[in-house]
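pinned: reference chain
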Amino acid sequence: MAIAKVLGIETEYGIAGGPDMDPITASSIVVNAYAQQGRMRINWDFHGETPELDARGLPGLTSFAPIVETHLANTVLTNGARLYVDHAHPEYSSPECRTPLEATLFDVAGEEVMRRAVMVANESLNPEHMITLYKNNSDGKGNSYGTHENYLVSRDVDFSYVIRAMVPHFVSRQIIVGAGKLGAETDHAIDADPYFQLSQRAEFFEEVVGLETTLKRPIINTRDEPHSDAERFRRLHVIIGDANLSQVATFVKLGSTALLLAALEDFGPEPFPSAPRHPVRAVRAYALDPTLHAVEICDDDQWRSAWDFQDQLWQLADRYVTQRGGEAVADDGEVTLILRQWRELLDGVRDDTDAVADRVDWVAKLRVVNGIRERYDLGPHDAKLRAIDLQYHDLRPEKSLAQRVGLTKLLDEGAVREAVHNPPRTTRAFFRGQCVARYPDQIAAANWDSVVFDLGEGPLQRVPMLDPLRGTAALTQDLLEVSSTADELLQALDR
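pinned: its structure tokens
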């Protein structure tokens, strides 16, 4: 039976400005400003991190583990999230969430965290050093940064089955959850001279399977770092995806992927459509074709468009829910909403894009860009259009075009504000976030699967959390409320 699809999103934000226009310095200023303003100086604990482990076994000769930069700004928030500098970008990693809607909520809360962070940072900077953040995936100069998803998967599922089942989804889902971009940045895409692509990230992928995340990016990432009990779980680390401003797109991206992973655990890989014979070529070709007519030959000798893949995958997910239920992903009402929105987006991008312009980022962006182009009679590669593309992703409410195009909101603004400060109640993130809020001076460090306490006397004490579904409000809230100090909490845990 499928296990609970605990999930979350890590988003690296585009950054501009800062002293000397140095992105690392600017990113550090943003992260540190938010941490200091919130009096959160909880260090990240790198104990047990294993980015070099490959789910296929020993890494191949061409595989390079991601570099872990332990010296850059890095802290844990009271909502259970991690805020840090990743290479040259500020990154918000949401807390572990139990359902796609909850994960969408904490991703949107991350946008608000970053808005507040840059606002506090800019208060201390000269006007010429002001920093701007963008929720996007490329800088227009050939550099791409990630929006990574994470899903809890049973260790019993052979990783080759994950590859077999999920490649069709990851190469094709961009037709409904792509963020869209003008032009191209990589040699092969520039040769095609596109006016518009469906995805910000697709052109940067070069391998089908691999360990890397910044070089030779793979469609299926093999990092075997579960941040949990490695004998029971694996964490599917998905690096092929765009940063969405549409809440519905984020919800469908997470929900569809979670349902398909649950179906894989219960049905095996056989019901999934045959993968493209050349997946890298397919993901690029599909991105370059907003008409959705591009087709690719598959391993079963059938030609499929991205829409064909998504249609078959929706049918599989719908059949799975009918036969097995969707409780591994969410309750019945939320699962029904996932399937309905997925279906509406899929039919809309084929039959009537205007009907889904309020939910599909690339459709909304293309409408704005085309409107400006026609109004001012601009050429397809005019710099003004590139500026409009970027402005879609601007986090500043008064500048963001995504705030003005009428995107449907799934989430209540009050719930978003609440999620900025408070963790989800349904996973171990509750315990982590509450400990950070209640005992900040008695925590030496924390990470996804443990909290390390410093009581001032004796050795540091680590509280492990190897099951993502332990440490919930239901299991720990009463204990936390009667423990006024970390010492009392640890004594109670010992009992």
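why pinned: The longest strand covers residues 147-154. The CA atoms of residues 313 and 395 lie 33 Å apart.
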